[in-house]
Amino acid sequence: MSKPQHYHFVLLLSTVVVALAAIANAAAATSITPRFKEAPSFYNSPDCPLIIDESHGFSILFSDQAVHVAMTLDAAYIRGTVAAILSILQHSSCPQNIAFHFVASADASLLRATISSSFPHLNFLVYPFCDSSVSRLISTSIRSALDCPLNYARSYLANLLPSCVHRVVYLDSDLVLIDDIAKLAATPLGDNSVLAAPEYCNANFTSYFTSTFWSNTYFSLTFANRKACYFNTGVMVIDLDRWREGDYTTKIEEWMEVQKRMRIYELGSLPPFLLVFAGNIVPVDHRWNQHGLGGDNFIGLCRDLHHGPVSLLHWSGKGKPWARLDANGPCPLDALWEPYDLLQPKTPFALDS
Ligand SMILES: *[C@@H]1O[C@H](CO)[C@@H](O)[C@H](O)[C@H]1NC(C)=O
Questions:
Q1: What does UniProt give as the signal peptide span (predicted)?
Q2: CB of 204 closer than 6 A to ligand 1?
Q3: Which CATH number does the domain housing residue 128 bear?
């Protein structure tokens, strides 16, 4: 075989490989990340602080004056995340002073591109999260969606985010804000609280742990000197410095190790947070987490709002508004989520290239 022929064969082969890779990429892009519209631009009102960071130029991503928001980013919830971001920007008086910190365990570059194309001016960083770092600690819960390693990323924010970020608002992806996030972020944490969140002292706290837990004196003594109340971990204001000082990630992991051995609770990432923090958090007004709109953990019944004012709507529970809308079976309150949906409407007559 002469050299040129061989060369042509290799060239042809590599062309085929490149073409196949392109097809695979396109397929992945369409199946993993749906297309979203570009959001309108949002600008600071005139009285917003102008943030200039000496070391990073005009950067708010590491600034003390910025409102720092942490969320996870994955293919399954991307539509919810995009809606949440839009809702935050739209109701903020200083939207350009918000820094987003996204934690992603896979497809990070694709997800980053999706966020950039919908929000071209967004201040954000994407942090890789290694699933295997936490998966060895996860035991199966009553709802398989809760067992996803990324669901535990909220326990690792203090390690993931740079140490110059001192306070963060953690938000789930199945919620929308209808009020200024700066108000939530400014919650006073007092002299030593690590975390602030709406708490619910009427909820039956006992039911979040198994009888194995309560019948073990050593375990139940954990709550001995605190008035432990349930709180939802989908909306939390976290002092990252205090978290790092107290090494709360390790404390959470220790309870997860106990769970691995003796099943002391039924849900996923929530109970370890309750074990470590319940009774020691700063309570936030309930308006900041109108949760449960997804229904229960089993069939996802429609739920109504709780009494009182609303600043944040949270579709926690099994049913998600985008899924119910797609299935033509929305709950009445899903109409409040829909205006933030940036998914490109399906165009059945257009040929997708
Ligand atoms: C709280 O939950 C526990 C365990 O699920 C149950 O045994 C108890 O009766 C409940 N208490 C109330 C007041 O509902």
A1: 1-21
A2: yes
A3: 3.90.550.10
